[in-house]
Amino acid sequence: MAEYIIETAKGKWEVVVGLEIHCQIISQSKIFSGASTEFGDDPNINVSFVDAGMPGMLPTLNMQCVHQAVKTGLGLNAKINKYSEFSRKNYFYADLPSGYQITQFRFPIVGEGSIRIDLSDGSSKIIGIERMHIEQDAGKSIHDLSPHKSFIDLNRAGVGLMEIVTKPDFRAPEEAGAFLRKLRSILRYLGTCDGNMDEGSMRCDVNVSVRPYGSDELRTRCEMKNVNSVKFVMQAIENEAKRHIEVYENGGTICQETRQFDPVTGQTKVMRKKEFAHDYRYFPEPDLPPLVLSDEYINQIKKEMIELPDAKKQRFVETLGLTPYDAAVLCENKEVADFFEKAAAGHDAKKVANWMMSDFFAMLNKKKLDIRQSPVSAENLGKLVELISKEVISGKIAKDVFEIMSETGDNPEKIVEEKGLKQVTDTGAIEAIIEQVIASNPDNVAAYKNGKTNLAGWFVGQTLKMSQGKANPAIVNKLVKEKLDN
Ligand code: MN
What we know:
Blueprint: E1 6-7, E2 12-24, H1 63-75, E3 83-84, E4 87-90, E5 100-103, E6 113-118, E7 124-136, E8 140-142, E9 151-153, E10 160-166, H2 173-190, E11 202-212, E12 222-227, H3 230-249, E13 257-261, E14 268-273, E15 283-284, E16 291-292, H4 295-304, H5 309-320, H6 324-331, H7 334-344, H8 349-367, H9 378-389, H10 395-408, H11 412-419, H12 427-440, H13 442-449, H14 456-466, H15 473-485
Helix pairs in contact: 1-4, 2-3, 5-6, 7-8, 7-9, 9-10, 12-14, 12-15, 14-15
The protein binds manganese (II) ion.
Manganese (II) ion binds at residues 22, 135, 163.
């Protein structure tokens, strides 16, 4: 893609970004206890003694979370580590009752991998994954219910997380945005995380530094914690990079620190000086044995893997003739891709794609519906395209039929039959209409014969109008010329 260079009066700069993404694992129960993971329940309902950090309580690893993590690792084209272990990360905070988080430190369950991102100019780029480990979530502190008190909800405490750490491979805000959308798409295909950033089930920490353009040094980075939308991640990168450049150009230095992105101002402000790994006094978790996975276990999960968005996109381009752009849009969401394939089965796939990308998505947007709630079924959309391909109806009439389908959910064949919308291809019937138009417009006929030949289009329009759009336009065109010219 076009390079993202920040140019000032004093020089050219480039941005270096890495992301750390916490993804809540889809699982009925928490990672070390049997409590429910349900989102939105009354506060402190889904809390076991383990989650509350009661003395003497022992964690038990939920193998469903391990299964989901391995599946995710495979989806990230990553190495699955057969040996991993849990560690305690010690810190004090009111929403962490035990005083430590059980996480993975030295030996994570997933090693290096990669994700391909698609950029707006049609190019793509590979982003490296450094590692992915599993850990428990903390509770939630609520500071805005009372001016004097904070409240703690432990329903989230102990929910399983996958923390995905990328390599510092991003060189533009757009690349980070494309990565988050692709990651979310992969996680949703796999069913391992719902990817809802606004509900906090996918939270992104953004590490930003800058360097003179063309240099390969890595300067001090700052981390923005828990940025909660793709748009805000891109904005945070842009504004944080500008802040660094201003500091450097004025002779200052950047300190490694944790900052907070303010969505209202778009600016970042300091939260605390960055802590280093030794601040957390990590040590191996004494209450859990190392996690050892067999080849059979990993191979079993490999067999469950479904076709992911990149492979599906490639197949749509190669076997169905879609453009890479259309294929990418249709593959981002699995429900959309499945709907498309069902609609296109046995019909003109490119035409079906065109209908989905235009009228169909516009209809869902307007009605604020998810594709699963679409009043127009995949089969009926396919049938509509078939009616156009077979010239039973014109493209223009098809839009009216689609309008009715989106109100009633009816089969297009039935609508065309009932409303008498079949295209007229009978030349005799069309000739009769043309003759009528010619007879009632002698002035225009005379003008045409005197050389204003572009009036032919006007006669075509009048004929189509009189036929209520049902006359086949190609036949009308041909017959109008014949009639006017003799
Ligand atoms: Mn973490």
